[in-house]
Design brief:
two-stranded antiparallel ribbon, 2 domains, flavoprotein (chains A, B), about 450 residues, alpha/beta, 8-stranded parallel barrel, Luciferase-like_sf (chains A, B), TIM Barrel, homodimer, about 15% strand, monooxygenase (chains A, B), Diverse_substr_monoxygenases (chains A, B), globular
Chain lengths: ~450, ~450
């Protein structure tokens, strides 16, 4: 089983209001190296595969037509740039992998290729790239990009990945760097070539600036859930995040993803599919329930609304309560209808219903359906079910609460998984890169490698 | 006296061919954290102000019409992204400052503002930004930008700095972050505002993504030598790099820079002007001469040509030897004529002359004119002269050879400067930020701060 732990370099990662938890260390720690170093060391001691950083550019200002709710509740703002944390965290650890979200919409591919080659060098091959196209509603306000419709964004991202792969895999031959002092040859010029690309979106005619790094191409993560996003994942991704509503119903989603990858000419073993879920643990039933109560009490309704409205792109404060929600959802929000329908199939959701559903702090039913909640034994049981029934390869865990939840994963959950023989008790020393951690030592047949 | 040490995350920083030096550690070390950590710790033990990273985007391909010479001689290629080194180096040190080159042409201002706020948080206020506009000849081939004429680049950079300053200084009030758990207020929304800018080059209408960092605005470094570059420095820079040909003739340049800053409404104390020079030390006259011989022997003519042609934008291999050099220089290369004229005023430089001048490895006259060369006593004498006669505030030192040259600066030169009372023997604990290191503890009246 593979375990990623997800975080974000913000005061209250993922859970709005939880910076108020008495054991919180994120509210001020998120902008310090010492905080993240101790998180990374803790995860490494538990043999976790990778620490994964979500990221965002800009400040969500949908709810109430302003950024006030996001700012007040620290919904992804303030947020430092997580890419800058990775080399220091790698220096503080030896085996833990790191993956970071980096947008194809806000950085030129030549720059992206250099950033990840640098990260791969400085982490000794322990880096992954979570490809996002960004929803781009914030692109205009930040001046970072221009709005592009959803599917077209993925067309652009396809071309983007083509360019960066070429820079990583085809520009420098293995052994190009000679260090031949006698002949005054540092690098053999015949073994380095310009990548020449002239496409719809990008033009490059230059050699890559970095010599080959341990992995060359970072491990490619992706989480697109739309049909076009799934196609993108099937084509490019190695680690895919899914959010299955149940183990049983999720089996078909997992099988379809693997099938789609095969349709794109990739092997049956090409994907590692990780179920993304919050995890809230207690040593006993009673402690778990107490913590659930505390979680509910500390959640910020305003923060939850800022998050949901920003995510979906609809201001729930701007429409009469009885407006059917389906009428006001934008292109990117359509999938939300399905999500709500699955939560209450018989209900004709209105704006008021949705607002109450999002903002009501006490939603105990959520703790068993959408969260890995309970004692380590109960949570391990559910994880086993996801592996066996849905066929996932592991989990992307969202620690809840953000700070002490990391300790709980390492101190309570991992030992239970290890006891059951479901999770490693030590890193395999033969697996020296993050790709080998996922696919086994010596694994080299990742996408793009064959181009050499 | 202020001392910066300049390097670059490349195998042979600044000196082409010197990766072949027997004591070299850069050729493979440049892409590892451990190498840079040991460099930073060494500089911190010597109480140096800051480690400064030059940078470049792309691969120079002017000489011979291809990248072959640059690649062969490792002239700034391979090159990792130095920005990614800083948080880890700050974690490995406590007082040393760090400055990094970051181009206004290749990154959006909103992104730049976030990167430097992140760096300033993670380094506890020890970061500086060397503003470059990039020469942009490589912009087309890398797809990172489009060519803009020299002076217009600076107009654009003026606007760029205006935008990032506004994000750093005006978007978040001091005390905006409340951590008020009882009121469920992380940040007071009334104390955070969008920066609204619609200019010729940039449009932004968003709040800064980061809460105020220790320095807010990083220390601004600049090195523009052209008239337009000098105006830019006078307007924005706090630390200015100059390359004076002699202490005596440099006095007027230094005085003019300070005058220009005052003309822009800044105080007489607004600039720290650092003379940039290579330094090659020996314990004795004889050792210094031996090392000069060795330096000359290890210099790569091909690398020097790749560097010079890339820098000036002219392919010396593409013109008959008797072509007058002034005829083929581009806009950016005009200043070179003055430089060559100062080296040999009576000579009518041809392409062949220049090529021989650049590529001839044995140029002993260079060691006294353009280099701080000799015993620690001799070098300290010359540095004193620059401070007293030219009026500079310190130096930006280019260690030669790149690896052992750092040791020589720390072990031979700094002790001599300390013995003379010219350089600190310990960091002043009251100076907690890099800005305070340059301008004194409590100094807060930097550009932009008054905007709050």
């Amino acid at each position: 089983m593979h375990l990623n732990v997800l975080s974000q370099a913000v005061p209250s990662p993922l859970f709005e209001g939880l910076w108020r938890h008495p054991d919180d260390r994120s509210a001020t720690g998120y902008r310090t190296m010492s905080h993240w170093t101790s998180v990374a060391r803790k995860l490494e001691a538990a043999c976790v595969d990778a620490l994964f950083f979500a990221d965002i550019h800009g400040v969500y200002d949908v709810y109430g037509g302003s950024a006030a709710a996001s700012v007040r509740h620290a919904h992804q703002v303030p947020a430092i740039d997580p890419v800058l944390l990775l080399p220091a965290l790698a220096a503080a650890t030896e085996q833990l992998g790191f993956a970071v979200t980096y947008s194809t919409s806000y950085h030129a591919p030549y720059q992206c290729a250099r950033v990840f080659s640098t990260l791969d060098h400085l982490t000794d091959g322990r880096v992954g790239w979570n490809i996002v196209t960004s929803d781009l509603r914030l692109a205009a306000s930040t001046g970072l990009g221009t709005y592009i419709p959803h599917d077209e964004r993925y067309d652009r991202a396809d071309e983007y990945v083509e360019v960066v792969r070429a820079l990583w895999e085809r520009s420098w031959d293995a052994g190009a760097v000679r260090h031949d002092a006698a002949a005054d040859v540092f690098t053999d010029p015949a073994a380095v070539r310009a990548v020449t690309h002239q496409g719809r979106w990008f033009t490059v005619d230059a050699a890559h600036q970095c010599e080959p790094s341990p992995q060359r191409t970072p491990v490619i993560y992706q989480a697109g859930a739309s049909d076009r996003g799934t196609t993108f994942a099937a084509r490019h991704a190695e680690v895919v995040f899914v959010t299955l509503n149940s183990a049983k119903r999720g089996a078909e989603t997992v099988a379809r993803l693997r099938r789609r990858a095969e349709e794109h000419g990739r092997g049956p073993d090409a994907l590692r599919i990780l179920q993304g879920m919050p995890v809230l643990l207690g040593r006993t039933d009673e402690e778990a329930r107490e913590r659930a109560e505390q979680f509910t009490a500390l959640s910020s309704p305003g923060g939850l609304l800022a998050k949901w409205c920003g995510w979906v792109g609809v201001d729930l404060a701007a429409h009469p309560d009885d407006t059917p929600i389906a009428e006001i959802l934008t292109e990117d929000g359509r999938s939300v209808v399905g999500f709500l329908a699955s939560a209450a199939p018989d209900r004709a959701w209105t704006v008021g219903d949705v607002r109450d559903f999002i903002a009501t702090p006490r939603r105990p039913h959520r703790f068993d359906r959408l969260m890995l909640f309970g004692t380590p034994e109960q949570v391990a049981d559910r994880m086993e079910e996801y592996v066996e029934v849905a066929g996932v390869d592991g989990f992307n865990l969202f620690p809840c609460p953000p700070s002490s939840g990391i300790d709980d994963i390492c101190d309570l959950l991992v030992p239970e998984l290890q006891r059951r023989g479901l999770f490693r008790k030590a890193y395999d020393p033969a697996e020296t890169t993050l790709r080998e951690r996922y696919f086994g030592a010596g694994r080299r047949d990742y996408l793009g490698a064959s181009e050499r």
